Amino acid sequence: KNGVMCYTPELGSSLGERMNLETELRTALSRGEIELHYQPEFDISAGGTRLVRFEALARWFHPTLGTIPPSKFIPIAEESGLIVALGSFSLERACRDAVAWQAFSLDPIQVAVNVSSVLFRRPFFVEEVKDILHRTGLSPRLLQLELTESVMLTDPEHSIETMKQLVATGITMAIDDFGTGYSSLSYLQRLPFQTLKIDRAFVKGVEEKPEMRAMVDSLINLAHNLNMRVIAEGVEREEQMRVIRVLGGDEIQGYLLGPPTPDPLQHICKPVAATASEE
After folding, report:
1. pLDDT at residue 277 above 80?
2. What value, to the nearest 5°, has the Cα angle with vertex 181 and ends 238 and 49?
3. Which of 239, 223, 217 is nearest to 191 (CA)?
4. Does the pLDDT of residue 150 top 90, yes or no?
5. By C-alpha distance, which of 216, 221, 151 is closest to 190?
6. What is the predicted pLDDT for the residue at 183?
7. Residue pair 145/172 in contact by the 8 Å Cβ criterion
8. Does residue 204 sit in helix, strand or coil?
């Protein structure tokens, strides 16, 4: 309205690609093209690096189009409503996989699953999560659900109540990518999060930029004052890990200690073997 837009061939090409991907995505689950890869998260608070959790990340491997990155298909899934089926699939598969991990680890290993705000706002989401836990046999304390700040944009009171019900079952709640979106501190102190994930955008320059170090320091102190643990995402260098540890960060995630992998057992079995040899 009251504007002029000029058509270019690129616009048509982009729209055509999007429509094609949406069509293909509608049958990707039934064709077995969606897989979960797992990125490890390590506790660094005691001076070492102890595996505590894997984050489940959806990957789409198309037989002719090749690997389609999440940055392309996740927004399409959210806009089309396909994120509900994709989210439910990811949650159940992750829980089933997490049950299998426990037999190979001396310590309990959590699984973290990202939950879209579309799926989270469904009327029976809490019941669906409980049903998945019952069917898979996973203990609620071994599941961490990750939400972004966008969950508070619509009906915050309903979101708070839903989260309280999930926490009451023993599930851990984490706020993902904190500081890059809505960031309402008035809601943060009311939300029953146990964990705050610092976005990789803050970690990227933490070892060389004093202003980034100051922001990460502030976020860690804020989280701890609200009785939350802190996970730093996107840790790729030893110096970044050292700074996060000095600032009091509890856990890290990133390519330094492990990229996403379809075979998380390679990480689980290493510390078990090391412990056995030390004994």
Report:
1. no
2. 25
3. 223
4. no
5. 151
6. 58
7. yes
8. coil
Cα 31 to the chain's mean position, in Å? 24
How many whole angstroms separate alpha carbon 147 and alpha carbon 115?
6
β-pairing verdict for 66-68 and 251-253:
unpaired
Q: Where are the beta strands (DSSP E) in 44-98?
A: 50-62, 66-68
Cα(51)–Cα(53) distance, integer angstroms: 6
DSSP, res 108: -
The C-alpha atoms of residue 238 and residue 241 are separated, in whole angstroms, by: 5
* Residues 22/76, Cβ–Cβ less than 8 Å: yes
Question: What's the sign of the alpha-carbon dihedral 177, 179, 182, 184?
Answer: positive
Q: How many CB atoms lie within 10 A of CB 29?
A: 16
Closest C-alpha to 175, from 117, 98, 241, 100 = 117
- CA separation for the pair 135, 125 (Å, rounded): 15
> 7 — alpha (psi -120 to 50), left (phi > 0) or beta?
beta
Q: What percent of the chain has pLDDT over 70?
A: 91
As a whole number of angstroms, the distance between CA 115 and CA 143 comes to 12
Least-confidence region, from 1-15, 75-89, 141-155: 1-15
pTM of the model: 0.88
